[in-house]
Amino acid sequence: MSPNQPLWTPSSARVSASNIHQFIKHINMLGQQIETYADLHRWSVEDKKQFWLEVWQFCDVIGYRGDCILGEGLPKWQTFQPSRDTIWFPQAELNYAENLLSYAFQDPGGIAVWFENERGDKQHLTWQQLCDQVSVVQQWLTQNGVGAGDVVAGYLPYMPQTLVAMLATTSLGAIWTSTSPDFGVDSVTERFGQVKPKVLFCCNGYTFGGKAFDMQKKNIELAKNLDELENTCQIEYLVGLPPADHTFSDWNAILECYQPRGIRYHRIGFNDPLFVLYSSGTTGKPKCIVHSVGGTIINHLKEHQLHCDIQPKDRVFYYTTCGWMMWNWHVSALASGATLVIYDGSPVSPDTNNLWRLAEKARVTLFGTSAKYLEAIQKQRLAPAEQFDLSALKTLCSTGSVLYPEQFDYVYQHIKPDLHLASISGGTDICGCFVLGNPISPVYRGECQAAGLGMNIAVFDEQGQPVLDERGELVCLNSFPNQPVGFWHDDGERYHHAYWDKYPNTWHHGDDVIMHSNGGVQFFGRSDATLNPGGVRIGTAEIYQQVNQLNEVVDSIAIGQQWNNDERIVLLVKLTEYAQLTPDLEDKIRQLLRQKCSPRHVPAKILAISDVPRTKSGKLVELAAKQVIHGQTVKNVGAIANPQVLDEIASLTPALAD
Question: Which listed site, 148, 184, 346, 623, has its alpha carbon 20 to 30 Å from 49?
Fold first, then answer.
């Protein structure tokens, strides 16, 4: 197939039925002459004020709007209280939970939440039942003194109770923050301890991969560490655990103590804080990234309705934990009238078909997952299209890491040929996407389709000049509503250093990319993990794309080692149970990289390890591995899901001395 030939092109019927097509028709009624996505994107950045005003109207944002923008400059310095050249919707007042629960008035008996876990537990909540539970928990939070500006934390799996607790919190104008229960107490304390929650939600235990984890002692220890807690509510999620000695409130008792009533929504300013998310913390104390209520609502509505074509009664699934920003992204789909399809547990337990079985039963229309999951099922030769009825599936979203061209092929050959495959990329920093899909344009192999509407992204070379069809740094040249308010209790210095130091008045995101002439964007990995042997830039994803396809290899990580006043590539591989790193396999890896990539991609050293270090959300921690082989201290091993692997990598340093 020609590299310029699309893998998928939407039918005229699909284009006509899409939200974005209707949006274009609406904009053209105002005097524009927009025909293509490129036209729409160009207008959205040239007239950003009008664009965001029209998004507010088209997506039916609930709240007082007022004017759109104060000031026209791109902010490069922010503090926890917004102080910047561009203030979005400075007069607006709205509430996040009110926007997410508004569809209950249209279809109170429809299913709002479809939940399953790996143990076989199932739960469906109608819109009315969801509102009733939110009302009850809101009353309990109010009794515990929670109000606008207070912080409520969740140390929880992704389950209906987590959603209810968050909606009850945000209905009061309070701030929600969460992590998943696989984080250790020290790591959670390091995060929650900075924002000082007034109330903590936790669970007695959970299962993953068929193994039960008792959380009760961890909950007691965490509650003691958070000295400003007014109350802790523990959810009895794992049946049969012997109770520990604690004085926590009980979720079921709370639901029985109050009568549901109309939810009272406290509207707050557009730029007031809604969520606190956390950086990975692998290079130091995690940064507490504060996201605004209005920026989150309007951006998620834009991404869901215009880019992902989510419509009322769609069934939206995303495999995520509460420690990853995709959880925040997923729950916002309620604001479009969609049903949340939720799965808690291992995606491959009790078997590798879990998620596809759920997709069939729930009639999932949007299936969201990670590129790593797609890579894993591709290697296992799963063919969901042959085993499951996926006729309802319209869109597949992939994020978390680079989606390789071969994975595009796999999706269209073995999942569904008529499918909008959207490789999306953004991050915790913006709780959204810089590049993502659009349902009215073709999908090309190995490319994210386009820049997000309203996002004036570019690629800069090392001199800070924009380039096309050349590799460089992903940047954004304009202001957008979902920029973080700032970092918690930061005077602006850390925020400025994180995003604005590298290029004047320009957001630097830290991704190594190419922007193609057709508007598509190809990713090569994080720029801070870029290899540079002999002065030639190499993205680590280029190596993983080839090596991870080998039957003998489960996973890999490439590191740049300083060597003789240069840099050489060290490749660490996790092998399958029955494979060994023989000279023949090493030669096979080197020949593959030389043939498929270039001689510069060939590693000087290849070593086997038992696992590959990753964060709790599954991202490779190449920088931490690089620090280890250079004898440096990794500042926050608590952020790493399998920190013991770093000790294993450190033990390999004698083998890297020649």
Answer: 148
* pTM as predicted: 0.89
Q: Check residues 594 and 273 and name the one with the higher pLDDT.
A: 273
In the predicted structure, residue 505 carries a pLDDT above the cut 80: yes
Measured in residues, the chain has a length of 658
Q: Name the residue with tokens 């025909």.
A: 35
The whole-number pLDDT of residue 529 equals 73
The burial class, CB within 10 Å (0-12 / 13-18 / 19+), for 346 is middle
Cα gap 456→99, rounded to integer Å: 27
Q: Are 321 and 400 in contact (CB under 8 A)?
A: no
How far is Cα 341 from Cα 319, in angstroms, rounded to an integer? 9
Q: Are the CB atoms for 94 and 62 separated by under 8 Å?
A: yes
End-to-end Cα spacing for the chain: 44
The CA distances from residue 309 to 17, 68, 89, 107, 366, in Å, are 9, 25, 25, 20, 9
pLDDT: is 402 or 32 the higher one? 32
| Mean pLDDT, rounded, for 624-645 | 84
According to DSSP H, which parts of 510-603 are helical? 540-547, 583-596
Closest CA to 318 of 155, 114, 481, 182: 114
d(CA 113, CA 129): 10
Helices 127-143 and 160-171, axial angle in degrees (round to 10): 60
